[in-house]
Amino acid sequence: MIKPNVKLSKFVSPVRYELMLRPDFSGFTFLGEETIAMQIDKPVKEITLHSVGLEIEEAEITSGKFSEAGEVSYQEKEETVTLGFQKKLPVGKAQLRLKFKGILADNLKGFYRSKFEIDGVEKFLATTQFESTDARRAFPCFDEPSQKCIFDISLIVPSEMEAISNTLPEIVSQHEGGFKVVKFAPTPKMSTYLLAFIIGDLEYIEANIKNGVLVRIFTTPGKLKQAEFALEVAIKCLDFYENYFGIKYPLPVLDLIAIPDFSAGAMENWGAVTYRETALLIDPEKSSSANRQRVVVVIAHELAHQWFGNLVTMEWWTHLWLNEGFASYIEYLAVDHIFPEWQMWSQFLTEDHGRALELDGLANTHPVEIEVVHPSEISEIFDAVSYSKGSSIIRMLTEYLGPKVFRDGLRHYLKRHQYANARTEDLWNALGEVSGQNVAIIMHNWTSMPGYPLVRVKRKGGRGKLEITQERFFSSPISASKAKDKTLWSIPLKVMGDGLGVDGSEFLMDKKSMTIPASGGWLKLNAGEVSLLRVDYSKELLLKLGQALSQGELGVLDRFGLIRDAFDLSEAGFNSTDEALKLALNYKSESNYTVWSELAGKLNKVANLISDEPFYNDFEKNARSIFVEITGKVGWEKKDGEGHTDSLLRALALYSFGSYGDPETIKKAQDMFNSGKIDPDLRGVVYNLVAENGGEKEYAQLLALYKKETLQQERDRIARALSLFKSKTLLGKTLEFALSKDVRSQDAIFVLGSVWRNPNGKDLTWGFVQKNWKVLKERYSGGHFLIPRLIQSAAVFTTKEKAVELEKFFKKNPAPEANRAIKQVLEQIYSNADWLKRDSKAISSFLCRQESR
Ligand code: BES
Ligand code: ZN
Fold first, then answer.
1. Atom 22 of ligand 1 has which residue's CA nearest to it?
2. Per 3-state DSSP, what percentage of the chain is helix, strand, and coil (rounded to 5)?
3. 134 CB near ligand 1 (under 6 Å)
4. Which residue minimizes the CA distance to atom 13 of ligand 1?
5. Is 170:138 a contact under the CB 8 Å cutoff?
6. Is ligand 1 within 6 A of the CB of residue 336?
7. Has residue 503 got a pLDDT over 90?
8. Which residues are catalytic?
9. Distances in Å between the alpha carbon of 826 and those of 382, 383, 794?
């Protein structure tokens, strides 16, 4: 299928928009009027703008003294509208005036409606989600990130409602019939995807930061107590970024608004950032430590965009990673600054670095910079490559250049491109100029090529030398055998070890192979897991490293990297899974939360792989032996003076130990559930263990809790538990429930995915998804990233037959926005099948040996 060209003409460009919108909350429609001041650079007989689902009622062009009504035609596939004129419009200034109407749908994009209840009464608010290409659903426009303009926005709304946009109201005047006209101050020069209009019965709290910027948190009525945490964090964050970037926040107001129906986590609209309720609101009594961390991270991410993305914007979506990869890196700097005890940089390894290694290890990955044209292609790249590989290569570069040089380079880049657009090279050039290094050359293959290197190391000849080589890593030998990849990366490589001093040694590896000096002792390549790669050690070197680990010589990040690679190299066929399982036994007295989180994740992956094998019980037993010590250490009770990551570790350890079948832990969870008094940090664990070991009675209890709960974070915890039952009948009910009116459309996907990832629910969910495909497509169709997210859950399958089934189904029922996700998931399933076949025996005999010890 040839994708229509969706880029607009270069010869007509917008200069300034005057836009008025008027939502109708009873008919769920809206009216709009706009005047676009334009520059015409070549005589044209027609003007094409983006527009979807809008009905244009009047269109008139004025150029000098001449005016003419345009003839309107729509190009549905291209998402454009064309206005045709009798005479050619001359070069110069022109003004286009349009009147139009649209539908205020409940599809989470464009200008849409969200529903909530106050004292049993149904209410609606109107809000927007424009990124990437949905501003065109609210008003005809030049909907491309490089068409930056000033916008003069007016909203006509019911007098009692709040109206929010990117700037503050300048004039509010009464209008007939109980309405008011709110005219906002002109915006800075900005891209269409960053505009926002929010209208509804909203409440807010506010504060001023030092230099007078007004910060407000908006919620639906009755939730102001839950807004206090966000206000405090947003202020600290804004302060941090102003200092770090050396550029003041350019607007007089920063609003953060919690929206009940919201598809992403949050959206960085300039000055009017919108959030899911779970990503902004904290109930002091009911939210958990993990909930708090999520809120802080999301705020930090979206506020980073106010500079990186909003002030300087990518020229085209090919450079999306400049937005998302960057914000995903900088958010850690801010959170680490505000909450230094949260160990955010260790958590980076699971949240981003690890995700990048995982997705980018597939043959069906894509380069960070990739040509994208159609909206469905654009929406596809909001993935772990743009976010997590993007942030990981930035971290790698920062460590290489040094934090101060890096910051100065960023300041230089932002100043140079502010209120304009930039490409990847512009960033490298700015960093290169400040550092004096050839950044563009070092970074070239990291962004232009798919994948990342596997560095293999072994002794060469005598004692004093090591040979290191690089090749592209594939997470499956099947993918590796098909690819003929010869990419070489410039790898900043740090080595730690016996006799290398505290800082180790550091160099740039930019060849296929190199010889480096070494002592006879242990050594760890990629010290601190700074670069985006994996390391394959020779048996001898791995043995020495294992000894260093047992003697406590490795830091947190290195302990982490060692266990991660051990498991992933066995999936990839470089070693056998029993070797990774053996190494895992050395981690029993580990104390760091992130290392545990990684280990738990890897064990879980193996558990899923062998969940239908006869020796699965032995695996559970082995897993219990790994978790028993840490579970005893953390216990069920909070201890005096303990910190944030202690709470996270407690929940992780207890859940893992209980989930692998420890009877005492399960019993304790059940007792706590029945007592009704559960610390928020333990609620997830308790609900999950109760569900995994429960039947109809527990199901009914949890369902009732969900229905009466109003805090969305708590609802998410309960929904997750509902997906963990063993009974297929109950899981079937959960699937039906997900699509019922009790679950918001954005949350349903998460519930379905969660049942899919339950070994007892995977076939059931796949059947359900096929049966309800039409409903799902309708709900989430058209460039929505929720469908790919759902399909990704199919990665739990471990047989070729399932892969074939999926392939057949999607051939018959195409989902263009999930094309790449489908390919990725198929690759993963084939890889699983191969992995299982290869290592099943070795795992089983390892478990047997453990048994007899
Ligand atoms: N710009 C995105 C929101 C977005 C995502 C819009 C996909 C359109 C398509 C926003 O900055 C973002 O990345 N939000 C994240 C949260 C963040 C902490 C990673 C999200 O929504 O998950
Ligand atoms: Zn973002």
1. 265
2. 45, 25, 30
3. no
4. 324
5. no
6. no
7. no
8. 302
9. 20, 17, 8
